[in-house]
Amino acid sequence: MRARAIHAAAVVLPLLVGAVGCQAAGGSDPEQTRPGASSTPKPVSAEPIDRQLFAATTATAAGGSSRFTSTIMYGSAKSTAVDRVTGVQDYAKTTARVRRVLDIPRSFPEDAAAFLGRRPGAPSEPEIYAVSGNDISYRTRAGSWLRYSASSSKDFADLVEDLLEHTGDAAPWGRTLAEVVKRSEATRQPVTTGDGDRRYQLTVSPATAASGLPATLDDAIHSETAGQVPLTVVLDEHGRLVRVEADYTSLLKGLQKDGVLKGVTSLRAEYTLTGHGATPVPPLPEGEKNEDAETALVEVGAMEPGGCASTDTGLDRMVLVRSAPCDAAADLLVFGQVDIDETVDGDPDGVADRLAERGCDRKFDAAPASWTSRSRPSGTYYRVGSETLSVGSETTLTGRYTCYIRTSTR
Hints:
This protein is α+β, with helices and mostly antiparallel strands and 410 residues long. The protein contains eleven helices and 19 strands. The chain has two domains: 13-274, outer membrane lipoprotein receptor (LolB), chain A (Clam), CATH 2.50.20; 297-406, no CATH class. Helices cover 18% and strands 33% of the residues. The strands form two sheets. Strands 8-9-10-11-12-2-3-4-5-6-7-13 form a twelve-stranded mixed β-sheet. A hairpin with a 5-residue loop joins strand 10 (229-235) and strand 11 (241-247). The longest helix is centred in the C-terminal third of the chain and has 16 residues, at 351-366. It is globular.
């Protein structure tokens, strides 16, 4: 019986590392544009309309800290996948502690789930992260911490840049709608509500809106063909962010043309802030092991057939794993590597993937039954890899794909 192959492409994205370095203004008006800038801070509402949202970002950071919830909702015909991050962040110290849960129902489209780095119906185990400056640490299920640092080697930083992009510019935890607000310009005065909040309605370009989405989606968006994104921003009476909403549904047509998020019919995001100035960020617990991810992990493409590994890395893309004995600690077994070096006549789109599929099919059929019998779901294998296209006197595809099975239902 032919094995059922699932492709999980490794995506390489540009690195964005930044952090807000605003000093908390103890006891001062939180609308102060920057500490020490003026003894009589200028309210956000007094700024020109096209500068008010940028000023609100500064006022929010000047509050010192906050509690936040960032939610992305991927709607389909039968169910909605929800990616929710909750946490606390300190703007002055550029620290954060967050908890992420990605819940993908069993009825959610399989291709879209694979793009998000999960399988439909897989257990939604919480993921815990800590930000300190430009470093992000992930707490493994064993209770140790893996530290991903922007100061690591360039080759390693390139592999983990999806995660490192969560060291934000507008807030310590990035890739949220806070980043979009900082880059946006309102054109109409807000509506003031009865409790003093101010509500802005505007649209932003796809390029601006993409900064609030995961890096893999940002990379896939074609700004020149995507539609504008409606944005709602709510500030409190002090000019600080309290709620942001965005409807990204207009971007789906362009994404799905490239095979991204197939079957998804709506895409929305929300960001809420509470506890301004009164939310401490806890330090990493003493006594828990802290490892440098660059030395602890290996590239999945470098693993030998028969080798096992743990995917408990905090990364969504199957690029790096931790080598492990083929026992309960492992959830992956590599059964082959497929190298591609092909001269292509005509359209090269999809050629490498088809070659990788055929190669992995052959290797799965030839692999020892003691390996393939461990696959979960039964009879299923996965492949991950990338290719390089060289165009000259002839078109050449080169690359490597790893063929592997999941040995657990995680």
